Amino acid sequence: MVDLRENQTLYQQLSQAVLDYDEVLSEQLCKKVIDAGLDPVSAIKQGLTAGMTKVGEYYKAGRYFIPELLLCSDALYAGLDILKPHLNAQNQSQQAGKIIIGVVEGDIHDIGKNLLKAMFIASGWDVYDLGKDVSCQTFVEQAKAVQPDIVALSALMTTSMMVMPMVIERIRDLNPDIKVMVGGAPMSQDVARKFGADGYAPDIVAGVNEAERLMSSTVQE
Q1: Which residues contact 24 (CB under 8 A, 6 or more apart)?
Q2: pLDDT in tens, 66-94
Q3: Record's superkingdom (predicted)?
Q4: DSSP secondary-structure letter at 3?
Q5: What span, in angstroms and rounded, lies between the C-alpha atoms of 128 and 61?
Q6: Which domains does the chain have, with CATH numbers?
Q7: What's the gap between Cα 103 and its chain centre?
Q8: Starting from the edge strand earliest in sequence, which strands make up the sheet with 98-103, in order?
Q9: Confidence class of residue 204 from pLDDT cuts 50, 70 and 90?
Q10: Do 119 and 208 contact (CB within 8 A), yes or no?
Q11: CA triple 130-216-202, angle to 5 deg
């Protein structure tokens, strides 16, 4: 008989391992999940995702900063590397959505993008990371190939953010149903609106919420 209390304790320990940015423990606990024949999806949602959600709360409260977020995301990825090979096709078809993320051309600052990627993965999204200094053409080609629900553009400099309107226009021409969201230090809600973006995220914690809002608006349409 499955001991649900023991399972919950294991998931709580996994969540805490992410919060404590303990990569080794995250790996060990995820191996224990597999060895015990437990559902990897439950471990991801109730363990890794729950931990990363708490990390986001700590960040918003000023208890954690960028260095801690990076370390926590490393612990998240360490666990995911163990669990993901055990997800079946049905599990993978139940993902929250498909998103392309990247830092626009002329900008090599990708810490925020990397953290956003971790938050999306933890929340069950199928993430296609194009990296940094990504050309407009690459965004368009990948959007055509992947057919994502959302394309997320990041920029840290005022000069590089000026590339965004062109990328947004090209994505619109390709497929008007693809939503585009933007973020980064020089961005604001007004600038995002001026650029023609569908959404704007002031920080990485808001990023997933904004993407979910865009998905909901698409369903309603």
Answers
A1: 78
A2: 899 999 999 999 999 999 888 765 455 55
A3: Bacteria
A4: -
A5: 29
A6: 4-91 (1.10.1240.10), 98-217 (3.40.50.280)
A7: 14
A8: 126-129, 98-103, 150-154, 179-183, 199-201
A9: confident
A10: yes
A11: 55
